[in-house]
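Dear colleague,

Following up on Tuesday's group meeting, I ran the structure prediction for the two-component complex that the binding team flagged. I've pasted the input sequences exactly as they went in, so you can double-check that nothing got truncated or mislabelled along the way. The structure tokens for the whole assembly follow below. Feel free to forward this to whoever is handling the docking comparison.

Inputs:
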Amino acid sequence: MTKLIDIKGVTHAYKTASGPLPVLRDLNIAVPEGAFTAVVGPSGCGKSTLTRLIAGLMHPDRGEVWLDGERVKSPRRTVGMAFQNPVLLEWRTILQNVILPLEIVAPTMPKARRIARAEELLALVGLSGFEDKRPSELSGGMRQRASLCRAIVHRPDVLILDEPFGALDAFTREDLWQTMHALRAEEPFTSLLITHDLRESVFLADEVVVLSGRPATTQYVLDVDLPGPRELEVLYTPKAVDYLATLRRQIQIAQGRAPASQGAA
Amino acid sequence: MRRNLGRIAVPLIAVALFLAFWEWIVWVNGWPNYKMASPSDIVPAFWKFRGLFFEYGWQTLWRTVVGLLLAVVVGTFLGMIMGFSRLMRDALYPLLVGFNAIPKATVVPILALMFVGQHNLNTILIAFMISFFPIAVSVSIGLSTLEPEYRDILRSLGASQFTVFRKIALPKTLPEFFGALKVAVTLAFIGTNLMEIVSPHGRGLGALFDSGKISADYPLMFAVLLALAFLGIVLYYIVVVLEKIFAGWAERAPG
């Protein structure tokens, strides 16, 4: 399979008043076409920087970001993004919010087709009947569903998810994980998910990349060998529990507090 | 239906109560009309000068509106510059604050000398100068506090800065803009009247007030104040209607 997202030796630092603050160091991540990769790591290790680099909103100091065989130099229309904050436009209805990317990417697309496309996605995430509501009339989970629809309405090759489920309560979050699997079954996209939630990473991803503390580099890569589409019960299988334990240990190492020797327990 | 009726009736009853209280307090203290005219003194004054009230009221109104429109255009423009550019914000803020701190009453004679006899222009300029500041500040704050994610959802698709402004920044700033416009409306009236009262041979309600003062017609002076309040209310509610049309989404259902 071709590498749809290919991050090659990316090093990046922020300019601050007290000199440059390195956030990424020689980072390599490759995501094959159609795959779902999760990136986990300690807080403030530069995960969000990574999303902005892939989207072409920022340029790395060193190294290269390639999408679908082309080097990223500026924003590309084949990318969809969703953030922790659903950032829906309050003056638009849910339907109009979902249509927004089409107005930029496909300005000539007939209105009826735009609406049909948005309605199809809203139905897929269980928001039928809420098309004409304003974002302020919806719950946090519903807003995030609409935000996911907006991220994929223009059929992007690459979906960048920057902790989109992070601010939701636990049950709503699990609902949205399943929605994510439903979307993957219907829509072909390659995803990179930034998250703090190890269960989320194991449940959703084919591969989990653990980043080290700042400046972040690839510390560990976990292949998640669980059949899809997954049900929540899969998280309680021995295999998944084992994955979670491995990731937990890796995070502690990344945080600089490696657990005491294995035998001590 | 009943709710709409209430929304009209409540303010009207409040105004009626206020006028009744006014009448009562003048009557109970036995104040002569040069100390405090009562509503019953003012009604004949309105009737006596009704032609002038319409003519001058119109002059005051259109000058104020033109000054206000100028303030909207310039204020929005300045707000945009300051909202998008940190450099321009740092450069322009002290100048604007300094300019705004100057009492506009002191600018009146300067303008009157600068554009001698151009009474309309002078008046509009004062109305403009006194009212553009809140608009510029609110637009700049609205734009500069736009969360980066809002920009990113369109920028990541390759949208231009202008598209981001038109589709996101501009509508998102509208509630702040209308908030400032409500302040600006009343300020613009103050500006118009400053010029109308001070400048000789003036026109407009300010000049009518001045002639009331000269001829010691105290009920007339109070009548002018009431007329100004009335125009202010009318213009304010026009802004409220515009706000409902263009930024009604910002209003949450109560409770």
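Residues 41-250 of chain B form a domain with the MetI-like fold fold (CATH 1.10.3720.10).

Cheers,
M.
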